[in-house]
């Protein structure tokens, strides 16, 4: 029989938030794959548990090379526990490659649910949480960052981003440019830690605040676009949105379908707008 891959959530700040089952899995796993073995050591000491199995590193730099090795362990019957530095594996952290490879080989994959910066920030933001989408980290380059933001300029769901503290002011300024300075947002800093802070306000206001310097781990929650209705989206705007998606690597057919769904208009209307713009040479 094949083994089991266990994805385990770890505390995003306060170690007391660790789920009780995490200690059980750490003690019983045949292999513990950790994003940072030194941080794992501090976690196990705080939990009062000693892993009985082999501990290996599994981070962005060795993820591709180590995945086949771990899959062979799983196929051979091992119980492999995957932990990252904070939160759930695979959520802007290592894990996706291993899960995909394990599923392909017929290995059982399960999870130890744990803390999540995404859900915690959403709950604290004061913004609508009935529908949301997680966008992860934005590109570091200014042009690529603006392109990515423009792709979701009309998104009506609440948006959640991770960001590094030294890039926060530039990111908030770019969001204010694309989404509007008055679009409501919340910057959640050092969640569940000693200096936890949630700063709420318009994107322009928050960008000015972040310019003074911010430290810690950051999650940004942004209010979705207002529902203006499809009648307010003209042909020129539909064509622009298709072009943005094409520049990001989408095929035209998929870009047209996505823009139509987002704008709430028939695909034919978007297609006709794109063809007319092409014929007009614009």
TrEMBL record:
Catalytic function, reaction form: cytidine(1402) in 16S rRNA + S-adenosyl-L-methionine = 2'-O-methylcytidine(1402) in 16S rRNA + S-adenosyl-L-homocysteine + H(+)
Where is each Tetrapyrrole methylase domain found? 4-207
Name the EC number(s).
2.1.1.198
Lineage: superkingdom? Bacteria
Alphabetical GO biological process terms: methylation
Question: Where found in the cell?
Answer: Cytoplasm
Q: Which UniProt keywords apply?
A: Cytoplasm, Methyltransferase, rRNA processing, S-adenosyl-L-methionine, Transferase
Primary location group: cytoplasm
Pfam hit, one = TP_methylase
What Gene Ontology molecular function terms does this protein carry? methyltransferase activity
Record's function text: Catalyzes the 2'-O-methylation of the ribose of cytidine 1402 (C1402) in 16S rRNA.
Q: Write out the similarity annotation.
A: Belongs to the methyltransferase superfamily. RsmI family.
- According to UniProt, the name of this protein is Ribosomal RNA small subunit methyltransferase I
Record organism: Streptomyces violaceorubidus
Q: What is the lineage of its organism?
A: Bacteria, Bacillati, Actinomycetota, Actinomycetes, Kitasatosporales
Q: Which gene encodes it?
A: rsmI
